[in-house]
Structure prediction request, 641 residues.
Amino acid sequence: MVKAAKVLTTDVLVMGGGISGLMAANKAIDQGVKVLIADKCNALWGGQMPAAGGGFSCMGTPEEVDADVRFISKEGGYLNDQELLYTFVRDCWPALQEAAEWGLPFPRDLSGKIYHTRPGWMRMIDTDKVLPTLLGRALMKGARALNKVYLVSLLKQDGRVVGAVGFHYQTGDFYIIQSKATVIASGGCSFKSGALFHMNCGEGVASAYHAGAELRNAEFGNTYRPSSKFTQKDCRGSAVLLNYFENALGENMIRKYPEMNPLLSPETPPWRSGFIFKRWTRAFYKEIEAGRGPIYLNLIGQSVPEAGNFEKPTEVWGSSFKSRTHGYINMAHKAGIDVNKEKLEWYPVPEFNGGPIRIGLNCETTLPGLYAVGDAGQTGSAYLGAMEHNGMGGIGLGYASVSGYKGGVAAGKAVAAVPEPHYSTAEVERLRKEIYAPLDVKDGYSPYEAIKEIQQVVFKLKNSYFKHQDRLEKALSLIEEVKEKLPGLMAKDSHELVRCHEAKSMAFNAEILFKASLMRTETRGTNIREDYPQTDNQNWLKWIIIKKEDGDMQFSTESVPIAKYKYKP
Amino acid sequence: MVVKNINEELCIGCKICVDICTEDVIRFDETRQKPYVKYPRDCVACTFCEAICPVGAIDTDLTRPRKLPEVI
Prediction:
């Protein structure tokens, strides 16, 4: 099938129109360069921002910066890049104050000061205004944006990234975009684990790897968080329902596992409530494994306000829209369920969104011309070390904002010194054939089947969270089986072609998760190895680096330069 | 299917639901100038279409979510 090719040229290409991509687009355009944003879905409510509760963390005064670096380094098992962590936390608050002037809806007191009520943390109101505000500003300043353009592969010339190729979700048209700097802002890989975690399939990570960029900390990309089974949505803000969880025997979970309660631990102050999700996951798993599952949220006989403020939009979802469409009680109501009469099953839902693209202080990857912002490089930046990427409430938005800001500035400034990009026609033709290949396959491998097979392996807590060599090897062999079938993927139209490339990307992201987890023979942060329960600072104060060399996936380690860091184990 | 109904009498044909649909479930019928559900199996019940429709023409059904693989 030959499709029309659209060739576009820009200075800065931003792949992904979520909060980090739009921050990057805004800051790049402020450097006086041409900016093009392309999003597989849409740049109006793209990425994870629509799922966010509106909390921003790790942004504060200089004293608070140091407190955050100390806390995160400890929780991150000292596998953090402390220099990057310090710089990002320090620069977050000024970046957000500038974004507030663009119209981001931070609440202000009557003197005009943004409320900043707790150290390093604040909550935004009306979070659904954030992306339209950022997109609107970028467009008004002359940026261009493409919706439903799915960029699959990066273009390279003389070792530099010079753009990307892909196709249109609806029309199937081929897109060739030439750029002097390319910013990956397409998130990590959530393996289509539920509504609002279905878009980001790790394509940016896969394309960066295939172009030759280094990946780091891939073994820590695995996170789960509690969700009700019927909504399949990550009910953010669900910490407020803490008192009402019980096991199948009716035993109250918080009384059985007091560590689930962030209020009880001085190490986990309330605004760091996201931090407790790993404790929830462990407690839920323990009960279910012991035959006392499933876990229910029992609101029978509770009044709605007591049942966790789910009707108070700014408390839970940061916006009235989200309360209506994503609030637990409202969703239940719409589904015909009365939560005051029926207890509902909850379980740990895979989130898996930390992307392992390795970046430096200006969000530059190890490949010239390529940057990564937001979740695509959050794990790889070693900002959080071994800590789960959703480890603290508000960390996602804080990191996405500051990395987008810094990456946008760096990419925008860099283009002045870069010659006009040129791509090789032969390479583009090769990629075009590869991209459209599934359209020519009849009676092949369904991408829906492939995605399901990958999910069946990756979703399992016993494969991805509670790890053991035997199970990791088995999981890896199942993923290898899927990979062998991938050349037979079939698509009947451009819509299914998107699913095919998502499946390929998901298989890649599963492979690096399991391989890096196998390599790290210790327990640290979210790499919980049941066969190696100890943290091994002697041998494993190291990062695992993944790189494609001569077509093969190469693994190596690099010692964390802990001697030059302030905080040590 | 979770997009239960698109009320064509209310629909003004602005296409915002087509643009906002993250999974390309909704397409636009150019002849009739109305959106329709083309890929129901891909709907993940994000409900963005219902939330953003300026005239409230879209109704989603949350009673039958997709079955996802088990985690335990």
